[in-house]
Amino acid sequence: MVRRRVVTAVVAATALLAVGCSSGGGGTPSGGESSSAGSAAPSASGRTAEETPPAKGSVRVVRTVADHLKTPWGLAALPGSGLLVSSRDDGTITRVDDRTGRRTLLGTVPGVAADGEGGLLGIALSPDHASDHLVYAYLTTDSDNRIVRMLYDPRKPAGEQLGAPDTVFKGIPKGFIHNGGRIAFGPDGMLYAGTGESGDRGLAQDRNSLGGKILRMTPEGEPAPGNPFGNSVVYSYGHRNVQGLAWDGKQRLYASEFGQDTWDELNAIKPGGNYGWPDTEGRSSDPGYQNPIAQWHTDVASPSGIAYAEGSIWMAGLRGERLWRIPLKGTETSAPPQAFLTGAYGRLRTVVAAGGDKLWLTTSNTDGRGKPSPTDDRILEVVVS
């Protein structure tokens, strides 16, 4: 059952100011492999969030898994092997063999209206994907942003492997900008969605709007049990544009957020608080707003996807063209954020934990704002510590 009525939530975040100060150009390496490390201090896999990760980490791009992708946005790892990637502008979902790079078109998602920052955005697999074979997608239509789910049947011919979409949730405000779009299933089995305020700032503070929020719902689109405002999907509010969601080893939620002119943010999310937009951007002295645990000037970040691995949050930067490492201790940073791959691959959109010290990382240079190389866009395999 689709829910259109929403109430607010408030978010608690532990604050620690950390300003990134790396600069970078827009060059792309000639080959598919590159490495970038910052005083490498290798760490053991399986570290818990309460243990202090090393102040310095390392990043090594092992290989290019796939290239010549068009506007890749969402990325999901299939059980066993294989990656699903969505194309924002084409409205397609493609399977990529993560060992050979071979691609198989699953199909085109009907109803996608790709305009501006909208289109086919985040994708996520059902927690029971091994048995129910469901793929969830966040997409922009002519009237709204919504979440649908489709049956994925690899036994069918290429291009016909996606079933008809079933609308799980609709009515999220759409705009030429700030459509949010990241979806993910949490450790609790609930579906989370990051939304934007669609360019209408007031929606972020409006408890009856779905814009500028993090939403939490059941896989069927109902308000999740334990939500802070009863029969509402709203989990947190006061957001400008959330495109990154990830949980640490203690099942604590983090979200990345685009600022306007001054500060981009990484927030530690708890149910029931207010992140402050549009009344504040970045840290605030107002106790009614929850402060970010890290913040960056917008020219070095513009964050989209995030993932948790090796005791740190890893954050992909679009305008900043770099991968940020934010080491954690509890819900605070344990050292200043550290930048890698600055300018080496252009705009970075999505980062997904692949187990242990490995990440999948996508570029976003064909989205109309980048300078694509002849082989863009790409999925990279990255080892981190």
UniProtKB/TrEMBL annotation:
Annotated Glucose/Sorbosone dehydrogenase domain residues: 69-369
InterPro entries hit by this protein: 6-blade_b-propeller_TolB-like, Glc/Sorbosone_DH, Quinoprot_gluc/sorb_DH_b-prop
KW Transmembrane helix (keyword) present: no
PROSITE patterns the UniProt entry points to: PROKAR_LIPOPROTEIN (PS51257)
Entry superkingdom: Bacteria
Cleavable signal peptide: 1-24
Annotated region described as Disordered, given as residue ranges: 22-58
Keyword line: Signal
UniProt feature, compositional bias: Low complexity: 31-46
Pfam family, one: GSDH
Database matches in PANTHER family: HEDGEHOG-INTERACTING PROTEIN, HIPL1 PROTEIN
Identification of the protein by name: PQQ-dependent sugar dehydrogenase
Species, as recorded: Streptomyces cynarae
